[in-house]
């Protein structure tokens, strides 16, 4: 949902689309060149749409890398395509300022990209399984990731350094941060909902 409440933006196999809520009709569409768009997000100013791709299958010859696409909201031509991961992209977010992208992948890493240049800024490496969810703290200083390895990790956004962690009992499938950035709500594959205080996570030395 865009911040002005006018559009719902969602992924589809061939790219992304935006539905006009007032008119109850499809208004915009954007296409990817390979794979399928799995996740989408919109920059805080509403000017740009981003999508992260995943592979369609495992057939020989298919490009299995994960790409981040950036489009102007009213232009179907991609403004930028970033070759972001060695496998499909599973989560995507933009910092509150709108200048940095954070992508996470089934390759077990998360990465920070400069939206305007496409340059890589940081790599978060430490999960032993696919990263399924991520969230950026309101002050844009940290990124929280949840993985199928059963852990939730907190990282410094600028340096990529892991600063805190939590180990659960089952693969983490989703997570969200509270508006104040103090609490994490996560779901796992066993059907449990976990509520964690960021300040109570185990700190890395």
Largest sheet, in brief, is: 5 strands, antiparallel
Order of helices and strands: EEEEEEEEEEEEEEEEEEE
Q: What level of helicity do the residues show?
A: under 10%
Measured by DSSP, the beta-strand proportion falls in: over 45%
Rg calc:
17 Å
Task: Outline the structure in words.
The chain is mostly beta strands and 205 residues long. 0% of the residues lie in helices and 56% in strands. It has no helices and 19 strands. It has a five-stranded antiparallel beta sheet, with no helix packed on it. The protein has a four-stranded antiparallel beta sheet with strand order 4-5-6-7, with no helix packed on it. A four-stranded antiparallel beta sheet has the order 8-9-10-11, with no helix packed on it. Strand 10 (109-114) and strand 11 (120-125) form a beta hairpin. It starts with 6 loop residues before the first strand and ends with a strand. The relative contact order is 0.10.
Put the structure in a nutshell.
By secondary structure, the protein is mainly beta. It has no helices and 19 strands.
List the keywords:
0% helix, mainly beta, five-stranded antiparallel sheet, 205 residues, globular
Topology:
Layout: E1 7-12, E2 15-20, E3 25-31, E4 36-42, E5 48-54, E6 66-72, E7 78-85, E8 89-94, E9 100-105, E10 109-114, E11 120-125, E12 131-136, E13 142-147, E14 151-156, E15 162-167, E16 172-177, E17 183-188, E18 193-197, E19 202-203
Antiparallel strand pairs: 1-2, 2-3, 4-5, 5-6, 6-7, 8-9, 9-10, 10-11, 12-13, 13-14, 14-15, 15-19, 16-17, 17-18
């Amino acid at each position: 949902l865009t911040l002005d409440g006018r559009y719902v933006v969602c992924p589809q196999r061939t790219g992304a689309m935006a539905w006009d809520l007032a008119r109850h009709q499809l208004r915009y569409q954007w296409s990817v060149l390979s794979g399928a768009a799995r996740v989408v997000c919109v920059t805080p100013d509403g000017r740009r749409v981003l999508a992260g791709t995943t592979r369609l299958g495992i057939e020989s010859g298919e490009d299995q890398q994960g790409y981040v696409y950036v489009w102007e909201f009213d232009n179907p031509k991609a403004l930028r395509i970033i070759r972001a991961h060695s496998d499909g992209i599973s989560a995507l977010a933009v910092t509150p300022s709108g200048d940095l992208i954070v992508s996470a992948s089934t390759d077990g890493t998360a990465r920070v990209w400069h939206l305007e240049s496409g340059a890589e800024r940081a790599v978060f490496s430490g999960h032993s399984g696919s990263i399924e969810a991520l969230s950026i703290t309101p002050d844009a200083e940290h990124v929280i990731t949840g993985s199928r390895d059963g852990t939730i990790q907190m990282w410094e956004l600028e340096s990529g350094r892991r600063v805190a962690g939590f180990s659960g009992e089952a693969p983490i499938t989703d997570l969200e941060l509270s508006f104040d950035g103090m609490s994490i709500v996560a779901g796992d594959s066993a059907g449990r909902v976990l509520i964690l205080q960021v300040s109570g996570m185990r700190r890395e030395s």
